[in-house]
Amino acid sequence: MSRLKPSWQAVLAILFCLAAIASGSIAAADPAGVYPYEATKGLILALIAGAALVSMFRIPAMLEVLVLFIGAHVAAWLLIRGIAGVEGTARAPFYLLIAAAWLLAWRCVAVLSSIRTGSKQVSTALRLIVPTIFGAWILIIWEAVTRGAGIPFILLPPPSSIGVRIVNSLPILAADVNQTIFKAVLFGYLIGCGTGFLVAILADRVPFMRRGLLPIGNMVSALPIIGIAPIMVMWFGFDWQSKAAVVIIMTFFPMLVNTVTGLAASGHMERDLMRTYASDYWQTLFKLRLPAAAPFIFNALKINSTLALIGAIVAEFFGTPVVGMGFRISTEVGRMNIDMVWAEIAVAALAGSIFYGVVALIERAATFWHPSVRGG
C-alpha cells in the first residue's frame, strides 16, 4: 500500500510556491533599493512547501495538524511582517504565497474536522479550535490584502490597527458598552421577550386575540428601525430609555409569533392523552405544550439577541447622550477616525456573539431531550 495520500490543498500550495519562484521578487524595491523579502523568501517557501510535502505522507493526524499549523501561520506572519513599512509594493508572489499558506490552513482545519475521539473534552476543544482557525484566517487575509495592496486607511484599516485602537480606547469602549448593552439592550430584551411570551400565552387562551394579533405582529416586524427610532426618541427622550423602547418593539413580536407557533406544535394524540388524564388547560400547558414549544421559544430568543443589539445601535444614531456605541460610530465617521468605527463594530460583534452563545448554551441545557440537541 502506498504511503502517500496527497490532498489537493497540498498539491495546489506547492504549485503556488513554484509560481511564486518563477514570478520574481515578492515585493518591489523600497526607496533604498533593497528588496524587503529576499532575506526570508527562501524560509517562507521552505515552510510552505515543506509542510505541504510532509502532509502528503501517511502520518498521525495530530502530527499532520501540527506541521500544517506551524507552516501556514509562521509563513503568513513572515509575509505580513515583511510588508510593514513598504505597504502597497506587494507583487504577485506575495499573494500566491498567502494563498498557499491559506491552503495549508484549510487542510489543517479539514484534518481537525475529521478527527473522531471518545473524549468529550477533546471533542469540545476541536469544536472551538476549528472556527478559531477559520476566523483567524479571515483576519490574516484582510491584513495581507490591505497592507500588500496599500488600501487607504480611510477605506479599510488593517485588523492590527483596529486592535491597537481597541487597546488604547478601552475606557471609552467600556462606557459605550455599558450605555448600549447593559442598559438599553438588556432592559429592552428582557421586557420585550417577557411580554411577548406572556401575551402569546394569553393569545393562545383567547382565540380572537390570536387571530387579531398575529397579522399585526407580522406587519410590525416589517417596520424599518429608522422609522421607529426617531419617534421613540421624541417620546422617551435622548437617554437609554428610548433605545430600550425600540428594542422592546423589535423583540416583542418575534417572541409572540414564535411562541404561538410553538404552542401549536404538540400533536393531537398527545393532547388527547392529556385529556384522558383529566388534565386542565394549565396542566396541559406546563407539562406538554410549553416543553414542545421550547425550541420555538429559544429560536425567538436567539433571533432577538441580535435584533436587540442592532436596534439599540441604530436608535442611537437619532439622538443620544455623548456616549453609546451608535453615537460613537456616527461621530467618529464624521471625524474620519475609521479605526475607531471598526473598533466599535468589532466590540459589538463580540458582544452579540457572546449574547447569542449564552442563549444557545441555556437552550442546550433546557432542551437536552430534543433530537437536535441529542444528535449534537
Could you explain how this protein is built, in words?
- By secondary structure, this protein is mainly alpha-helical.
- It has helices at 8-22, 41-55, 61-83, 92-114, 120-148, 159-168, 170-205, 207-221, 225-236, 240-263, 268-276, 281-315, 325-334, 338-366, 371-375.
- Helix 3 (61-83) packs antiparallel against helix 4 (92-114), helix 7 (170-205) runs parallel beside helix 10 (240-263) and helix 9 crosses helix 10 (240-263).
Name the features.
376 residues; mainly alpha; MetI-like fold; 2 domains; 77% helix; 0% strand; flat
What's this, in brief?
By secondary structure, the chain is mainly α. It is built from 15 helices and no strands. The chain folds into 2 domains: 8-151; 166-375, MetI-like fold (Orthogonal Bundle), CATH 1.10.3720.10.
